[in-house]
Amino acid sequence: MTRLLVNGRRRVFRGPPFTRLIDVLREDLGLTGTKEGCGEGECGACTVLLDGEPVMSCLVPVCQVEGRRIETIEAAGSPERLSVVQQALLESGGAQCGICTPGMVMAAWSWVRSGGKADREAIRTALAGNLCRCTGYGHIVDAVAHAVREAARREKPRGRRPAGRRPKTTARRPKGRTR
After folding, report:
1. CB 86 within 8 A of CB 77
2. What is the rounded distance in angstroms from the CA atom of residue 36 to the CA atom of residue 46?
3. Which of 79, 136, 89 minimizes the C-alpha distance to 111?
4. Is 70 helix (H, G, I), strand (E, B) or coil?
5. Overall pTM > 0.85
6. What is the pLDDT of residues 58-92, one digit of tens each?
């Protein structure tokens, strides 16, 4: 028995410990968003996040993920509420046939959440393990750069006072008291 934490839910897998993670996710847990492309760790279609880092689930035996946090494409957003990466891919035309899209989204999501920059070369390096045979990579890289900027915009503190300045108060000190 292998205890898993998948998309924030505790799950149990009762099967051979060297079953590939992708098979457990798709067949046993019903999370079919993760796609299998090559089955050899060459294409990145099966990318999931393991403790926040992208891994190719076709190469990972389930026994190696016990007690670790697994995130699949199902955790990245929903049709009603797309993640910043999914929205950017949609708007830029970065998703085509859909085989590479879940893995690409997970690798990009990891990049965005880790504070990655909107630098095209750095994004290409971050996505290097994910192959797309439809689009080329221009639209995908543009989408990830847009997602980085949008995520930063959303996280900007609003209404906060500048560091080092005390807020003005309207309360008066009682007479006769000093600091």
Report:
1. yes
2. 5
3. 89
4. strand
5. no
6. 999 999 999 999 999 999 988 899 999 999 999 98
Q: How many CB atoms lie within 10 A of CB 79?
A: 6
Could you tell me the residue ranges of all domains in the chain? 2-155
Each residue's pLDDT tens digit, 91-124: 988 887 888 999 999 999 999 999 999 999 999 9
Residue closest to 5 by CA, chosen among 27, 23, 21: 21
Q: How far is Cα 72 from Cα 33, in angstroms, rounded to an integer?
A: 8
Tell me the H-state helices in 25-173. Answer: 73-76, 84-92, 101-113, 120-126, 138-155
Structure tokens at 154: 């959303």
Identify the CATH number of the domain defined by range 2-155.
3.10.20.30
